[in-house]
Every structure is written in C-alpha cells, then in structure tokens.
Design goal:
Number of strands: 38
Largest sheet: 7 strands, parallel
Structural class: alpha+beta
Number of helices: 12
Strand content: 25-35%
Distance between the termini: 94 Å
Mean pLDDT: 90
Strand order of the largest sheet: 7-10-6-11-12-13-14
Shape: elongated
C-alpha cells in the first residue's frame, strides 16, 4: 500500500530503453532555433503570468521559452509515436510508443540527449489503496458558531482556529482575487457534492486538466483530490467551511492512483507549468514520491536537498516563477522510509506535516531528513474534517489534508499583502509558528498563527508607508479641524484627548484598536476655540504620547539675542527667544571661514509662554570659529541669526604635572600649524627624553607618562611658537 502524499515525481533513469515501457521521456539538448523570444513574453505567457513576474521583478529566462517547435514536430512525425505532453522548464517531451524502431529513430536525432522509461506497457496496481488516508464518517457532527466570527465553521472550527485563521476571514480575506492550482489524482464527483455548491454557483472552478488520461475531465477519477479540495473550498455553513472559500481553483490531475511510476513526477512538473501559465498564485499538492512499483526507479536518501528529483526541480522552478508551492510532508513517520518525500525537500517548497486539533504531532507524519528544517510547518491532518461522498462531513488522517488546510490560509494572507513576494509571505508564516526559535524534525517551525503573521507583514507595510512613527496630527497651525492618524499599539481600548494649554480636556474619543492597524479620525468644530497651544494626547493605559499644535496664525520667531564667549578654551553659545509656536527645531551652525557652515547640534524649542533661554558648549572649538543659529519652522521655512565670531587665545602653552597619575600634561593652542618640542632632564642635568610633534592649528593635547622612571626630581621643558614652559616633576 503506497502513500499518495509522496508520489515521487519523475526521476529519469538513464540507460537502455526497455520494451515493457510504453511511456518514455525524451531529454532535449537545447532550445536552439526557437521561434519565440524572451523580449516578447506575451507570445507564450498569459497576461496574469506576466503580471506576476512584473509585480515581483522576476526576470524571464530560457525555462520560460517553449520547446523548439521544429524538435517537437520531428518527434511527432516519427511513425507510431504519440506526443502526450511537454515540459518547457525541463526541456523534455513525454511520448507513448510500442515501436522499438521509433525509439531508435528518436535517439538518433542530434537534438536528443537521452530517452528514459517512465511508465510500463500494462497498468496494474492496488487502486485507491495507494492513499492511506482512511476516510471515516464523522460522529457526532457539530454546529459550532463562535460569536464574532463571520463563518459558522461547524465541524472543522478547530482546524481553522488552531492557526487563528478566523482572524483573516473576519477581516474579509477569504481568497478573493487569488488562484490556487490543486495538483492531485482526481476530484471524484466534486461537481455534485454539497460542500462545493458555492464554488460551482460562483464559477470559482476556472477549469480542469487531466495530464494522465488527457481526457479533460477529473470528476470520474480518484476521490483524493476532492477530499483535499474540500479543506480549502467547502462552504457548508454549520457543517464545514474551508480556509479559502472565495479563491478560484484550477483542478489538475497529475497522478495515476492505481500505480506509482516516474511518469507521475513528469506529470507534476507539467501541471506546475500549467499553473504558472494560468497565473495561479499558489500550488497545493498532496503528492509526494519516494518509492515506485518498479524498485529500479526508487529514490534514495542521498538525493535529499540536492535538487535531483524531477519533481523537486519542477517545484523549485515554480517557486522561482513567484508561485507559493505548498506540499504535504508525507505519511511515512511509521514506515521504514520515515522521512519526507520529494518535492517536499526543496528549499523553496513549504512542506507541511500533520498534528491533531490539539497540536500534537501525528505519528504517521513524515519527519525531516537531517540537514534542513523540514517539514517547515504543521497543520491538522489527524482526524481532519473533509467533505464526504455521502454529503456529510467525514474525517481522514494524512498530511494530504494538513497541507491544503493551511494552504488556504496562506492564500488569504497573501491576498492581504499582494505586493509582498512568495518567499516573504512564507517567511512571515514561519516566524509566526510556535516553535520558530526551536524547530525540530517533527514539527519544523511548528503551528503558524495567522494573526501574528498578518501583523508581522502589516508592520513592515506600515514602516514602508509611514516610516517608524505611529502618531500624526495635522495641520499645524489648525483652524476648525485637527486630522489625526495613528497605528494601533495594542489590542483593546485607546483614548484620545484634545486639551488646552491649561490641561483641560476639551474633546475625547474612544477606540477599540488592533495592533498595527491604521486609524484616522478628526477633532472637528474647533473654530470657536481661542488662539493658543493645544495638545492631542494618545493613551492606551500602557503608552501615552502627545503632539502640541497651535490654533490660529503662527507668528515669526522673536530672537532676542544670540551671543557667545570663550570660557576655559570652550565656546559657549547662548540665545534667548520668544513666540516659538511656529518653530519645529533649532540648528546650531559652525564655520571656519564665515561662509561654509555645518550643523554641529540640533534641538527642539521649549514652547514656553514667555522668554526661553538656550545654551550650548562647543568643547572642541576651532581656533577661529563662526557661529550662527538656524530656525526651522513647521511650514518648511527657515531663518538665520546673526554670526558670532569666537577666537581662542592662540598664544597659549600650558604645562601641568599630575603627581597622582605621574603624567605630564601639555596643551597647546595655536591659530596656525606649529611644532612642539618636549625635553625631560634628571636632577644631575642629563637628558632622559626628547620628543617632537607636529601640531595642526587649534587645540592640541599630549600626555607623557613618567611611570618606570627612577624616583627623583625631573625638569620638564615644553616649547612651541607660543613660548617655552618649564616645570618640576617629583617621583
């Protein structure tokens, strides 16, 4: 009995072509002489597929080009050959023939690299037992309506709520505008099962494709795809409501349920290419591959994480085209294989394991092979609620169901943030999971929470739109209306006050807010307020913030004075102002030539009711420095003060001995560059140190340690153009 979730997608076995196989894959060498050009993608891609590439800056490459038509025609014209499908991504052609001479002819073509067996002449197998999902009636059935939720999820409430998926639905994100391609073994009677009434009536099924029998119909094939589809698309209030009820779906059959051969991997890639061509946003696949009916095709552990398996290569390319690829991890946890299958091993594929509705990992859920975080996440797949053929909810076990359950929620999340690419959406999902900081081989990152994922993406969006601020009040000055915009800091109650300069509350507004949501409102009918200062105050009991505004015209700043002086070789600047209501900030400027000024300090006004006094100390002034004050106003204008020129005493040489630290300290202040010469003599007149140093203009300092000198008295002499100084130092 084989596991549907892991139908190994298409491994090419190189070697001799065996006559018992009637389906073969031809590997082409190149796409030379192609009639299509990457400069005109509309010739071979749909508008929606082009739109996805444009939106996410995805370049076109050779894999987008169709197979060279002359190659395909040459193959199709070979006697007794039927071309079934092609993969432009892999540059391969699937044919059917029973004629050995036809195969020999194809192998002789110069553009053919190899021909490989992928499916046998006779179809045999164990039928629907290939899928181990063990569908059972669901008893008792529930009508579970939770207050505040848009949907009455019924029996599957727990498998939505475990992810707080209802948070997205309650915000109106149900998959509208999104397309999901479901790759599976068939969608038996989906067109009559009650759970799918809504998607049928609303024309949400965009089409069907059968890449196994090529008959254009998937309703008479296996039930497995129908069960998987129901976890996303069912809209059966009180019985079962899926996770993406408003999305549009492509139903794609790539799997032949009675058998397991590499042709199904090839079919999967062709199905993924079809999904890309339609502009689908997400692929949900509850298929996976590890072993086959013919053991010669079996995969091995050595292929993990190397992009070797055909299905893995196809899945990785689908992700490269901007599609989110969701794939079941597999049901091999209790089998000898144990690990995930292919294509779940791909870096860019979100592999989904299974838990029960309490979040406990299912024993059958495939484990991650060492070397990567796999599975990536988990969802409910043990006793998962699905739509039954008897028009009643049923239950089943398998990662086949956990994958589409959460794939629907990922689709709704992407709907909320359409400008974010596929990998960033998945990154937010992973970061929201309960074991993100401590992943393991059973849970991966764990159980995602879609409220958390939404807020992670919403925060990034807010920063992109508004920067790092979160509260705004305009205009300033105001007349009759104050417009307020803010970003919610917490879930719960938030209060806004409008206060006058005496702190009296004039207006009050209450909100129930959510974290990272953007809110706007007005304080209006303010024309009767007298001119003066007013404060808009935000308070959510944990955070308080205010913005000061002025009513009426803002008068120009009155700069009473701007002065400066040199004190202890530091420049001290002072200024006195009044009428500051229009001032946004002050900038203190400095120049060495009186023309080219640079900002050395910025600050905000006090907004006092009378004169305000300010000061600033420039601890490292220029020997000759020009200072002025720049006033920046709320309306964008600015003004400059008078210029203050401050000169250091440029004829100074200071010499000091710190006995405690046994250090000689020398300071020189010069308007021009100079040279410092230091000499130290012992008491008997012997020179024990001579040191010279070039000095730039301005303030220069030098420290000379006497540690290690023989105890005694020393004479220290320092000389510059400013003069010569001598002191005694006693050790």
């Amino acid at each position: 009995m084989k596991q549907f979730l892991f139908l190994l997608l298409f491994v090419f076995i190189l070697g001799s072509v065996n006559s018992q196989y009637t389906k073969l894959v031809i590997q082409l060498k190149d796409k030379n002489n192609n009639t299509y050009s990457l400069s005109n993608p509309s010739q071979f891609l749909s508008p929606r597929a082009i739109q996805r590439r444009t939106k996410y800056n995805i370049p076109y490459d050779s894999t987008d080009l169709p197979i060279t038509q002359s190659y395909l025609i040459s193959i199709a014209l070979v006697n007794n050959v039927n071309v079934l499908s092609v993969s432009k991504w892999l540059n391969r052609v699937l044919i059917q023939t029973t004629d050995p001479s036809a195969i020999a002819t194809i192998q002789s073509f110069s553009f053919v690299s190899s021909v490989s067996n992928v499916a046998p002449r006779a179809i045999s197998g164990n039928g629907w037992e290939k899928f181990k999902e063990e569908i059972q009636p669901l008893f008792p059935q529930k009508n579970q309506k939770v207050e505040g939720n848009v949907f009455n999820y019924g029996n599957n409430y727990n498998q939505v709520h475990i992810h707080e998926g209802e948070f997205l639905h309650n915000k109106g994100f149900n998959g509208e505008t999104m397309q999901i391609a479901v790759l599976d073994a068939g969608f038996y009677q989906y067109n009559t099962v009650t759970a799918f009434d809504s998607i049928r009536l609303n024309n949400q099924i965009l089409g069907q494709r059968d890449f196994v029998n090529f008959d254009g119909s998937v309703t008479e094939d296996d039930t497995h795809g129908m069960y998987c589809l129901s976890t996303m698309a069912a809209n059966w209030p009180g019985r079962m409501v899926g996770t993406a009820t408003k999305a549009k779906y492509w139903l794609v059959r790539t799997e032949n349920a009675p058998t397991e051969y590499p042709v199904e991997e090839f079919n999967w890639v062709v199905g993924a290419e079809f999904a890309d061509s339609t502009g689908s946003d997400l692929i949900s696949s509850s298929l996976g591959y590890n072993t086959f009916d013919a053991t010669i095709f079996n995969h091995t552990y050595s292929e993990f994480y190397k992009n070797i398996a055909t299905v893995t290569r196809g899945a990785a390319l689908a992700a490269k085209k901007g599609i989110i690829v969701m794939n079941s991890a597999g049901n091999e946890g209790n089998s000898p294989w144990k690990y995930i299958g292919f294509p779940a091993d791909a870096d860019s594929v979100c592999a989904v394991g299974a838990t029960n509705s309490q979040g406990v990992i299912a024993s059958f859920s495939s484990r991650g092979y060492p070397g990567k975080i796999k599975p990536n996440i988990v969802s409910v797949g043990a006793n998962a609620v699905i739509a039954g053929l008897n028009n009643q909810p049923s239950s089943g076990n398998g990662t086949s169901f956990s994958n589409p359950n959460i794939a629907g929620l990922v689709t709704c999340l992407w709907q909320a943030f359409p400008l974010v690419n596929n990998m960033k959406i998945l990154d937010a999902v992973y970061k929201s999971a309960h074991r993100y900081s401590t992943p393991d081989s059973a849970y991966g990152y764990g159980i995602p929470n879609f409220k958390t994922a939404y807020r992670l993406l919403k925060h990034d969006q807010n920063v992109l739109l508004y920067g790092n601020d979160w509260l705004w009040a305009t205009p300033n000055p105001f007349d009759s209306v104050i417009n307020v915009r803010f970003i919610g800091r917490k879930d719960g109650n938030t209060v806004f006050y409008l206060k006058n300069s005496a702190g009296v509350v004039l207006k009050k507004k209450n909100f129930i807010t959510e974290v990272e949501e953007v809110y706007t409102f007005n304080f209006d009918t303010l024309s009767g307020l007298p001119g003066g200062y007013y404060t808009v105050e935000y308070d959510d009991t944990t955070t308080t913030r205010t913005i000061t505004l002025h009513k009426g015209a803002i008068f120009p700043l009155e700069l009473i004075s701007f002065t400066g002086s040199i004190v202890n070789n530091q420049a001290q600047l002072q200024w006195i102002t009044q009428v500051e209501m229009g001032v946004k900030s002050y900038e203190l400027l400095r120049s060495g030539d009186g023309t080219n000024f640079n900002t050395i300090n910025t600050g905000k006004p006090f907004y006092g009711v009378s004169q305000n006094r300010y000061s600033y100390i420039d601890a490292a002034p220029l020997s000759e420095g020009y200072y002025r004050l720049k006033t920046v106003n709320f309306d964008g204008s600015s003004s400059l003060s008078n210029i203050v020129l401050l000169k250091l005493n440029t004829n100074q040489l200071l010499l000091h001995y710190d006995a405690l630290n046994t250090v000689v300290k020398i300071k020189s202040i010069r308007s021009n560059s100079d040279k410092l010469q230091v000499m130290i003599y012992s008491a008997d007149g012997k020179q024990v140190l001579k040191k010279e140093k070039s000095l730039p203009s301005g303030i220069n300092e030098m420290n000379i340690s006497l540690l290690g000198y023989v105890p005694g008295v020393y004479i220290v002499s320092a000389e510059t153009g400013a003069g010569k100084k001598t002191i005694k130092a006693k050790l």
